[in-house]
Amino acid sequence: MTLRIGCTADDFTGGTDVAAAFRRAGLRTALVFGVPDDTSVLPVDCDAAVVALKSRSTPADEAVADSLAAQRWLRSKGASQVYFKYCSTFDSTPQGNIGPVTDALMDAAGAGITLHCPASPPNGRTVFQGHLFVHDQLLSDSPLRHHPLNPMTDSALVRLLSAQTRHKVGLIDWATVRRGVETVRDAVLAHQKAGVRHIVADALTDEDLAVLGAATLDMPVVAGAAGLAEGIGHAHPTAGAAPAEPWPRAGRAAVLAGSCSARTLEQIARFHAAGLPSLHLDVLAAATGRDVTGEALDWYDAQDPGLPVLIYASATPEELGAVQAQLGVAEAAAQVEELLGTVALHLTGRGVRRLLVAGGETSGAVTTALGIRAVLVGEEADPGVPWTYSTTETGDLALMLKSGNFGAPDLFVRALTETK
Ligand code: ADP
Q: What is the pLDDT of residues 240-250, one digit of tens each?
């Protein structure tokens, strides 16, 4: 079996999201963290591999270089198509990075045309007449118009994309998509003849995305959010054939939390309410040189090995503000990431085999500390939050990486007390 679909995601959380989408389509899927190099290997034979980058808000030339490196690697592993996963709210500026990255991927693949669709119907993102909606509002009327990095003040995708590429941008409207795969393919050819290089396609439902997925299966570069990736996945000949990944029954279970988002704080409260053991890390004490890691490990060793544990730095907005005022934002974050990374390494050395990590940046710190560069994606515990599997120096590990606001309030308790 050889890799067929490659994917580059423009941020880490997006990588997990799109990998879960391929997996939902029944494809055996790997997730690779950061730009791979010659030494990077896929965990097993896979149908799909996602490279999670940090290229959403970096300067366009860096985003292009990282995306091209990921594409080269994916193609060297056999991928005939590269899907460029970006945000379902088309987060970008007139400088990019969606246009420049797509153009570069197309040039490298010798592609004459591509199709974009950022729709993600389960999350209320739909595209109609080329306009992106967030639930019942146009993108430009939604709270995204005040996004701190990429304020979205226009909803017309053809216009947004035209500002980011020197090539012609066209539209395939919903009426065409509803007529099915052959009609969409004909529309793609007609656009190509008319000199269009980027097509924006409408989609209101997962069915529409399945039509677009089937119609674009042979395009070397396709772009959008996780919804179209799932549509492509379903159209793949081996869809549905991925074997169930092994569920690690043995070994201890732990949550490490560095996210301070409201949902993570709720998940921590539920863990407490379930009477499970937890420990809060004192970030200020660590900054003054106290051996907070050693204390945490002593605490861990004294716990009932049959119960999952939670070790967290997560703080309420007030606590967070106080720590940041004292240490500075960057130093506070560095302390937390160092603490949780080191604790993760020691916990796996002490037999933890199921590890749930809360926080996007925190997940990056933990995977780096554990030396994990690629994982195999398994079943989702909640939408967009899959279990993943990897082999570390200390043995096999089931790892769940969740961004702050993902997962139901009972996720920590449910994921770690469930025995399948
Ligand atoms: P999310 O996915 O919710 O954004 P992240 O892990 O990406 O979560 O970000 C949380 C940030 O908050 C990290 O940079 C982390 O280092 C920082 N942080 C967590 N706990 C504390 C704390 N007690 N004091 C200061 N900073 C903290």
A: 778 777 666 67
> Which ligand 1 atom is nearest residue 13's CA?
2
**The two structure tokens encoding residue 109:** 């693949």
Look up residue 144 and give its two tokens: 């995204």
Among protein residues, the one with the nearest Cα to ligand 1's atom 11 is: 259
Residue for token pair 């990429």: 150
Q: How confident is the model at residue 419 (pLDDT cuts 50, 70, 90)?
A: low
Which domains does the chain possess?
A: 5-235 (3.40.50.10840), 252-417 (3.40.980.20)
- Environment class of 318 (CB within 10 Å of its CB; exposed 0-12, middle 13-18, buried 19+): exposed
Three-class secondary structure of residue 376 per DSSP: strand
Q: What is the pTM of this model?
A: 0.92
Q: Which whole number is the average pLDDT over 40-50?
A: 89
Q: Which of 361, 368, 385, 402 to mutate to test the pocket of ligand 1 (most atoms within 8 A of CB)?
A: 361
CA 348 – CA 251 distance, rounded (Å): 9
- Which pLDDT does position 206 carry in this prediction? 97
> Cβ distance 169 to 200 under 8 Å?
yes
Which amino acid residue places its CA nearest to atom 25 of ligand 1? 332
Contact 320 CB / ligand 1 (< 6 Å) = yes
Q: Angle at Cα 298 formed by Cα 292 and Cα 301, nearest 5°?
A: 140
35 has a pLDDT exceeding 80: yes
The response to whether residue 258 sits with its C-beta less than 6 Å from ligand 1 reads yes
